[in-house]
Each structure stands twice: as structure tokens, then as C-alpha cells.
Amino acid sequence: MEQLLLHLRNLGFTEMESKIMVELATKGEASGYEVAKQLGVSRSNVYAALQRLTQQGYVRCGEGEPARYSVLDPEELATMISGRVQASLAYMESEMPRGGPVSPSFYNIEGDRNMLGALIRQLNLAEKEIVVDVWREEASLLRNELEQAELRGVKLLWAFDGGNAAPAPYPVWPPLGGKPRRGGGRKFSFVIDRSWCMLGMRYEDGTAQAVVTEHEVLIELLLNHFSQEMVLFELEEDMGPELTKRYGERYSRIYSKYVMHDKDTDEPGKDQAE
């Protein structure tokens, strides 16, 4: 019930209108007095909402005294709402003023639902290319949108981490000053049409944080990182035994050579980049 009321509110109905429509759909028909009594609210508020819904065509008012009201069948209601929403969207798209150029900026997104919603909207707008660096858990949540993009002819470039794979080729930089790092998170990044990107972290408790931007510098950094990961992966696949034979244990330390370890942590050593 709460989910239904939430979606009705998302479609533009007030909380009172939503409850009245559900009540009428449950009963088939009812008077304003009966609806008010069932909902435990004032008759004046119910009659005002019923008048609005009747004028908009979502509710029918029968003849008689007292008047009895009924809501449209779900299919008819959905068709009417969809038509009006599509008409409003089309008008907004064509008539909304378009200002001058806007400098690329960064904005933060908090919350799993908000992050996934923003990402899904952008994936549905993709025209040419989607570059994905993501864990399989997050990819599974977006499977439908990614499959639809491929069907539209959008090129997908993937980098997956399934959780049981070998450690990433890049070292993890420790936090400075001994500040604790929040654990249990999975990083992800998406670059869409080389003009929009999202970079963030999703945690086991369902929380998420992400940065979204169209700034060309961050887009280029993410694309370069993706390319380097893929190149290194293929080199290790093709030359793994040779690399191990030539470098031995030193091979596993090459990347960490360029990490600045914090002197105040338990991490070893000092600045090793020379």
C-alpha cells in the first residue's frame, strides 16, 4: 500500500488524493462521507480533493443523493496519466528556455537510489559509447539498461572486478595522517559518450556516494586509467610467465615504488618516488 501511495505521489497526486483513489479502487464506489470516515480525515478535505479529481477526469461522480464516486480502471487511469505526462514533457522540452554555455562543474550524489537513478537516466541517453569500470554486483543492477544500450548500437567497453580476482595492478594509497578509511566499499566509474562521467563508491549497507561531472579533465583521467588497466591486464595475460621470470619478486613491487607512504601510519618507509 505504501509503495502504491508513493508512486501516485510521484505522478503528481497529493497524499490525500492518492489515499482517496486507492480507497475508491478498493470499494468500487463510495460517498464522500464514507471515504472520510474510512480514512479518518475531515469531510471538507475529502470533498475538496474529490472535486479536483473529478474535474481532472480521474474520478467519476454518479447521480443521486448522496453522490457516489468511483475511480477509473487502472488501465484507463494509466493511459490518461501517461498521455498527460508525455504531453507535458514534450512541451517542456520544446519550450524550456535554453541559456548560454555553462562551465563544466562537479556535483555530489548521496544515496543508493539517487545514484542509480542518475546513472540509469544517463545510460538511457547514451548514443555511441559507454566505458564501464565496475564490480559485478553493481553491473547486475544495471543489466537491463546496458543491454538496451547495446541493442541501440552503443559500444560497451567493460572492466569487471568480481571480488575473487587477482589484486588490481595499481597499489592502494594509504590515507594520510593515519586517518581511518571506511571499509567495505566498491569503487565504480562510468564514462558515457566521452562527455559525462560518474565516479563513486557503493557500500555493503546500501549507502553510496558519487561525483558527477562533464569536465573534460576528469573524463580524460578516467579514460586513461581504463586504458592502462586494460593494457596491463592483457600484457600480464600474454607475458605473465616471462615477467615473473625476468623480474621475480621485484615485479610485484614495481607499482608500490611510486606510492607516497604516510610517515605517521604503520605503512612502511618514506617517499619512494625518485
Automatic annotation (TrEMBL):
Pfam families listed in its UniProt record: TrmB (PF01978)
InterPro entries membership: ArsR-like_HTH, TrmB-like, Tscrpt_reg_TrmB_N, WH-like_DNA-bd_sf, WH_DNA-bd_sf
Keyword Endoplasmic reticulum among record annotations: no
Domain Transcription regulator TrmB N-terminal span(s) in chain numbering: 8-75
Keywords annotated in UniProt: DNA-binding
CDD domains listed in its UniProt record: HTH_ARSR, PLDc_like_TrmB_middle
Name of this chain's protein: Transcription regulator TrmB N-terminal domain-containing protein
Native species: Paenibacillus auburnensis
